[in-house]
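hey
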């Protein structure tokens, strides 16, 4: 997922570990004791098995599941087979989009330098297999390169002042066969070239330490020759899928006509196994589907995993946009599970697009109070698949632990970082909340549609182009 915005009130409250703002947080009962777990809660929570969730995460996180790739296709088939094993008929909803497929492999070696190099790609970098003398090109500005012949060479460029795209294009205009951009601060570069361009040459990033080590060699007069190979990167039309398993009401004569959506995204970012982001949400969705299959309900429940979330909520947007007006009106809740299992993330929070309570937060706060003795706090946040639902006026909330873990969007987002206790907790809270709404003769919160909330572009996608 894209790291969510947090309201100032929520961030401050979480930082100090206090729940003291009545306008934002509901409180436990006066005695500070848990309300009694209801008999109907046991219909769901007694059947939830965190080991099932964990094993599905383990399978899904064996490799990155980047949208539009064979690995994502394999994840889609696995999810479909799991839903079918529970007894569901499953719809695979395909959608196409113009996007970028990141490299399947990156190789960088520099003759004359024996240190370790761990290159990363930029979004929209191009494939290629190039070699050439390594030449320092400063910040890569036009004026710096005016008298520099880079023909057939690999340009070593420092981050700063102009965008990554400008650096690559300026070097290419001067004949560079490839570009290496190193950071001007600590940490890895997580960047994009902004958009596809036929004039790009293969480009990768290095850390500040790696780049300065190469520069020191050049400044000492050492001749270095770089070999850069990028495979699998391409820009163009790609295909992804949503996976939909639908539980119809048990008794047609008591069908409310309403629809609840429980979902997560199954894709990950390049280079990250995505155990927490978001195999955890996908696997929890699968487990809730298994649990609910034979539980009597009077409301339709759709269990959905979405594709291409990491590229800008593409799958969930496609799903919502292709609902009929009647389906949008009948859809009364979206429970969005994203990053719900990391042992090193913070506590569970509920985020709505506008930061206001809605049917989903009311149900989840009630279930968490019954189960844990206090309501899960809520605040404002986007950048996940609840956004298009909220824009359509459907009450929706993101379930996530905050702050996020240190290895968010990195190769370290692996199964060994997953907490079964957190998985069990989230699954119970969501499962009890969904059942509170979907059970026969529900007397819970009054059903009400939410206002249509307009999201800005940052609530869909996060870019770093400088």
């Amino acid at each position: 997922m894209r790291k969510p915005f947090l309201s100032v009130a929520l961030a401050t409250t979480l930082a100090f570990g206090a729940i003291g703002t009545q306008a934002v947080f509901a409180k436990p009962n006066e005695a500070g004791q848990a309300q009694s777990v209801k008999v109907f809660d046991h219909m769901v929570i007694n059947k939830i098995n965190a080991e099932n969730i964990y094993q599905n995460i383990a399978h899904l996180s064996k490799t990155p599941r980047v949208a539009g790739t064979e690995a994502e296709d394999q994840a889609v088939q696995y999810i479909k087979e799991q839903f079918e094993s529970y007894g569901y008929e499953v719809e695979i909803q395909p959608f196409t989009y113009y996007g970028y497929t990141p490299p399947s492999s990156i190789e960088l070696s520099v003759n004359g330098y024996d240190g370790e190099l761990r290159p990363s790609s930029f979004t929209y970098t191009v494939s290629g297999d190039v070699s050439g003398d390594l030449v320092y090109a400063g910040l890569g500005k036009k004026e710096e390169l005016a008298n520099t012949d880079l023909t057939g060479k690999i340009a070593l460029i420092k981050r700063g002042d102009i965008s990554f795209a400008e650096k690559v294009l300026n070097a290419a205009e001067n004949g560079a066969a490839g570009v290496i951009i190193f950071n001007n601060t600590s940490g890895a570069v997580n960047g994009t070239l902004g958009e596809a361009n036929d004039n790009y040459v293969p480009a990768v990033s290095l850390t500040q330490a790696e780049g300065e080590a190469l520069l020191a060699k050049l400044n000492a007069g050492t001749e270095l020759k770089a070999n850069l190979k990028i495979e699998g990167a391409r820009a163009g039309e790609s295909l992804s899928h949503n996976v939909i398993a639908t539980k119809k009401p048990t008794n047609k004569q008591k069908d409310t006509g309403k629809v609840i959506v429980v979902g997560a995204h199954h894709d990950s970012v390049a280079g990250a196994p995505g155990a927490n982001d978001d195999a955890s949400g996908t696997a929890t969705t699968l487990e809730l589907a298994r649990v609910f299959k034979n539980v009597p309900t009077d409301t339709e429940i759709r269990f959905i995993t979405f594709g291409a979330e990491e590229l800008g909520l593409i799958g969930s947007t496609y799903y919502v946009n292709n609902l009929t007006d009647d389906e949008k009106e009948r859809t009364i809740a979206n429970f969005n599970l994203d990053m719900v299992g990391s042992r090193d993330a913070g506590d569970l929070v509920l985020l709505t697009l506008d930061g206001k309570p809605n049917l989903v937060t009311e149900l989840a706060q009630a279930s968490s109070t019954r189960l844990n003795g206090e309501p899960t706090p809520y605040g404002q946040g986007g950048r996940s698949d609840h956004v298009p639902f909220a824009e359509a006026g459907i009450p929706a909330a993101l379930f996530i632990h905050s702050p996020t873990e240190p290895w968010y969007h990195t190769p370290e987002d692996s199964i060994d970082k997953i907490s079964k206790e957190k998985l069990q907790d989230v699954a119970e809270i969501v499962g009890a909340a969904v059942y509170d709404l979907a059970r026969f003769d529900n007397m819970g919160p009054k059903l009400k549609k939410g206002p249509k909330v307009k999201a800005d572009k940052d609530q869909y996608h996060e870019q770093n182009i400088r």
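The CA atoms of residues 138 and 144 lie 7 Å apart. The longest strand covers residues 234-247.
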